[in-house]
Amino acid sequence: MKNGGAVGESPQEELATGERSTRNRVARSILDHGPSTVADLAGRLGLTQAAVRRHLDALVSDDVVVAREQRVYGARTRGRPAKVFALTDCGRDAFDQSYDALAVDALRWIEENAGGEAAVAAFARDRMEAQAEAYRRAVEAADPEARTEALAKALTADGYAATARNAPVGEQLCQHHCPVAHVAERYPQLCEAETEVFSRLLGTHVQRLATIAHGDGVCTTFIPKAGHRSDDRPAADGSGRTSTTSNTEKTTSQASASTAGRNPA
């Protein structure tokens, strides 16, 4: 829901930015005040009812708000109940939430009271196993040479904005978004469990070269081609690009790849 105009926008872009800003105000007003009628919103925001309706139509189309009949308590008056607009779950998710802090607190409690880091790792593996069922179906339905691409598409459907591309002596799976990045900064076991699942689904040892949680721009996983040694894989920078390295650099990078996502010492 956060959008701001950029310097140098064209008149059309400025108009679009203004529309988004007003639309965000409409959604925010519903968040702050609860289900609202068109008249309620027009009065609070200083807009005409026609303008409010236009923005509500767009928000309904985007699954941000939903229209429903206003609940009437006590004796119902004559005529149809007024229509109110309420936020959907998708609309609520567009605003800042404290889920990351809640998740970190929960994992901290597990770590301190239920078995330390081993308990956190067990939770991470169990969580990933449940999540991976859809990935497994996608990978098994694909031809062997297309399995990394199939996994990327399945991850994208889960919100990871993933792509697959060829790299020297293998492929790279790049995740451009991580829904749990802030939690994984503190608990890299989430990254490690994910890497283990990728390896099992693709039927080969994979190596995590970079993670968003570790401060890189992209979560990058290297999948070697059959017949190539694991130390032949390229290194990755924070954007997911590859570069060639010397044997010494390869050895160092390989050692760090197995713990990608861990907080630096």
Number of strands: 8
SS element count, helices? 11
The helix fraction, in percent, is: 40-55%
Largest sheet, strands/sense/barrel:
4 strands, antiparallel
The percentage of residues in β strands lies in 5-15%
- Poorly predicted parts: 1-15, 229-235, 237-265
Q: Distance between termini? A: 36 Å
Enumerate the strands of the largest sheet in spatial order, edge to edge or round the barrel. 3-4-6-5
What can you see in these coordinates?
By secondary structure, the chain is an alpha+beta fold. The chain has helices at residues 11-33, 38-45, 49-61, 89-93, 99-113, 116-131, 133-140, 147-157, 181-186, 189-202, 247-257, and strands spanning 65-69, 83-87, 162-167, 170-175, 207-210, 219-224, 235-236, 242-243. The strands form 3 sheets. Strands 3-4-6-5 form a 4-stranded antiparallel beta sheet. Strands 1-2 form a two-stranded antiparallel ribbon. Strands 7-8 form a two-stranded antiparallel ribbon. The longest helix has 23 residues, at 11-33. It is elongated. Residues 1-15, 229-235 and 237-265 have low confidence and may be disordered.
Question: What's the arrangement of secondary structure elements?
Answer:
Layout lengths: L10 H23 L4 H8 L3 H13 L3 E5 L13 E5 L1 H5 L5 H15 L2 H16 L1 H8 L6 H11 L4 E6 L2 E6 L5 H6 L2 H14 L4 E4 L8 E6 L10 E2 L5 E2 L3 H11 L8
Antiparallel strand pairs: 1-2, 3-4, 4-6, 5-6, 7-8
Helix pairs in contact: 1-3, 2-3, 5-6, 6-10, 7-8
